[in-house]
Amino acid sequence: MEPSISIRNLSLNFGALKVLKNLDLEIGKGEFLVLLGSSGCGKSTLLNCIAGLLDVSDGQIFIGGRNVTWAQPSERGIGMVFQSYALYPQMTIKGNLSFGLKNAGVSRDEIEERVRRAAQVLQIEPLLERKPAALSGGQRQRAAIGRALVRDVDVFLFDEPLSNLDAKLRADLRVEIKQLHQKLHNTMIYVTHDQIEAMTLADRIAIMRGGSIMQLASPNEIYMRPVNKYVAQFIGSPSMNFFQGTIEGRRFMTEGLTMPLDGYEMTGAGAKDGPAWFGIRPEHVASGEAANAMPVTIDATVDLVEPLGSDTLARLEALGQLFWIRMDGQATVEHGDKLTIGFDPARAHLFDEKTEERI
């Protein structure tokens, strides 16, 4: 895939604090890349470096094959959508969309055409003569996206654009952003701490931690084969369940339980005996009669029940620790119930105890 953005050996320091650490990243033309991570991991900082809002300490940034490391934001050929709408309250939406183009000396006819096209794509045509105060949060965010859209650039940067919206609006606008990418085929980089946004929007996800990229892969690859325990814990809700124990001769042993690993593929340096973490996702655990057909079964006590309608989440006490499972939405379990749960170790994830890298 032809690269749209290339980041090479990028570092950013604030005094002695290393915020970004020798990052290398290639983003393909027309790709939707999501930077995902918890607060303080460096994802927004990386986006601001690409946008030219922060000067890097070391490394280079290329956009469309052009070195823009020291170029001004206006010279980088990008459109940016911020967490705050940042609309001029005294202007109409049409005025907000056209303001930057007027300052850039774009002709009146061209401005009219770009505003019309952006409004049509974002379905905000009836709102153009209104001022921001007369709009809902979702409408304001669409207007903010429209302001980036009229710039007619190849790269769009989104910095947590949905975080100020309620859950319903977030879901609706998430769909609209995905449809926008399908229509435009522009390169898009999207920052979020919300794994649902990342999994549903991205072609690839870069999971960041401490200024480094832990894993860069498709959503399915990250879910199915997390490279380390941190990524495994970060992706999935509820988080993956973990047992601490030891691998010995194709078996995992923890207090009160020995599990065969016949169906688990171990590779590389991790394919050795020793202390390890055994992880299993809540949705890969069966309960009731279905559990009896599984290679591994455990007796558990229900500690907490969270009915979600389509699913029921249950937190159990098993093997001296808390353990989450995802059940059918019609499941009838209560605090204190005794359950048998089961799973197939072939669907598990093993990580070295010391390095926390995937085995």
Structure characterization notes:
This protein is α+β, with helices and mostly antiparallel strands and 359 residues long. It folds into two domains: 3-230, P-loop containing nucleotide triphosphate hydrolases (Rossmann fold); 231-352, OB fold (Dihydrolipoamide Acetyltransferase, E2P), CATH 2.40.50. It is 24% helix and 35% strand. The protein has eight helices and 20 strands. It has a six-stranded mixed beta sheet with strand order 6-7-8-3-9-10, with helices on both faces. A five-stranded antiparallel beta sheet has the order 13-12-11-14-20. A hairpin with a 3-residue loop joins strand 16 and strand 17. Helix 2 (93-103) packs across helix 3, helix 2 (93-103) runs parallel beside helix 4 (137-149) and helix 3 (108-122) packs across helix 4 (137-149). The longest helix is centred in the middle third of the chain and has 18 residues, at 167-184. The radius of gyration is 24 Å and the shape is globular.
Fill in the keyword field for this structure:
five-stranded antiparallel sheet; Rossmann fold; OB fold (Dihydrolipoamide Acetyltransferase, E2P); six-stranded mixed sheet; alpha+beta; 35% strand; 359 residues; 20 strands
